[in-house]
Every structure is written in C-alpha cells, then in structure tokens.
Amino acid sequence: MKGGVGKTTVTLGLASAAWKRNWRTLVIDLDPQANATIGLGVDEPGFTVSDVLADSRPGIASEAITATTWGDHVTVLASESALENRTQATGPNSAHRLRIALASIPRQQDIVLIDCPPSLGEMTRNALHVANTALVVTEPGFFALRGAQQALEAIDTIRKTTNPALTRSVLVVNRARMTVAEHRQRVQELEEFYGSLVSPTRIPERNAIPQSEAAGMPIHAWESPAGTELANHFDVLLDDLVPGGSRV
Ligand SMILES: Nc1ncnc2c1ncn2[C@@H]1O[C@H](COP(=O)(O)OP(=O)(O)OP(=O)(O)O)[C@@H](O)[C@H]1O
Ligand SMILES: [Mg+2]
To answer: Engineering a disulfide at 13: which of 149, 158, 192, 234 sits with its beta carbon 3.0 to 4.6 angstroms away?
Structure first.
C-alpha cells in the first residue's frame, strides 16, 4: 500500500539470491512504473504484461517472457506505463487474468517473484490470486505499519475466499536502523503484534541498493562490503521463504 518502502528492492534482492543459485527465475512486474523491469536491465520490452492481461488466452504469458541482462536463467514479464490502463477491474473474474495467462509457466520455473504496485487494487489482487506466499515489505515507521496491516487483511480475505493456496504471509522490515530508538520500538511493536509472521531479516539502508538497481545488476554481483552484506540478508530471506530448495 505504501509507496517507496522497498517492494521492488526486495523482489530484486530475492531474484539476485535465486540468480546466484542458478535457479530458473521469473520476475513478473505488475507495476506500471516498471522499476523491476529496469532493474533487470530491460529498457524497451516488446510484448509486456499489459499485452498479456489484455489477452484472455490461457498460457499467453509464455509469448511475453523476456530475457534479462542478468543471464539466461533470469527472465521477466516486463511492465510498461500502458499497464496503467489495466488497473481497473473489468468484471468478476478480472483478478484471475494473470493466473489464467500464466497457466503452467510457474511449474517450469524454480521461483516466480511478482512485484506489485503501491496499491491493493487490481494488479495486486491478480498477484495474490496466483501466489502461494505473500511478502509484505514495511519500513519501521507508523504509517508503513498501518499499510502493512491493510495488506495483511487483504491477503487473508483472498486466502479465505478465492486462493486457499496462498498459505503464507511474511513481513519484511526494510531500511531498519536498529541504532535508532524509534526504529527499535516500531520493530518491537511489529513483533508483538504479528509474532512469527515477521521475518528475522532486517534489510539495512545502504547506497549499494540504488546503485546496483540503477546499473541493472544483481546485488550478489555488486562487489563492495555493503553488496556482500545485503546479499547475505537476501540469501537468508530466500532460505526462509523456500526451505529445502527451489520450486515455489
Ligand atoms: N534498504 C535500502 N537502502 C537504500 N535504499 C533503498 C533501500 N530500499 C529501497 N531503497 C531505495 O528507495 C527507493 C524506493 O525503493 P523501492 O523502489 O524498492 O520501493 P517500492 O516499495 O517498490 O516503491 P513503489 O511503491 O514506488 O513501487 C529506490 O530508489 C530504492 O533504491
Ligand atoms: Mg516498486
């Protein structure tokens, strides 16, 4: 719900950890801002997720899977600004368009990561109808925590109604400065309220994040102490999300 908290950063960080493991990784960019697409080095995609969602044929997404500059095993369903025109519901089943368009594609991948826009609207609902784990990214501030609450409620509603396979929600704290009393207090509140839903991973604030994103490089290939530190955090987070190896 809240913009700029690090959703795309966490998506790309997990994609980077999967890249490092040579997993077949598909990133689906459902944000018209296309930040994940750009972070994967794709500037001018041909067939995009906007075209895919306009087409109702099962499996059509396979025609839009685009190579990235990260390597053969990391691909993207790219976004573009025209996706903005598809963010309204068009009927009772419009939140299932992505699931239908993907058909068997997720089973051909080791991991599929979906980056959502900062709203609980149509695109995020499409993501939640095909996902089996929902990651809620938050910053240790009051408004971000409220946004996390709204996201968790939306996830619960979809789990209880239309996607029982959405069995897991995980809260990840980004930009945590645990030396700041306010941050410590907010993280403690989160843990008291949400218990084991809160991932023990705290992504620190480091310039290596915007730098590697702008360079279109995986953080695991960013050779600096901060790059290594961040890579370790995303490795631990990926282990937690996919215990025992790939295939989610
Ligand atoms: N831990 C961090 N340290 C330093 N910079 C960060 C960190 N996390 C995110 N950023 C930077 O903050 C900005 C916003 O992050 P990001 O794009 O990941 O947020 P978002 O939640 O995807 O935003 P939006 O809601 O617009 O999609 C980006 O420029 C990103 O590089
Ligand atoms: Mg984003």
So the answer is: 234
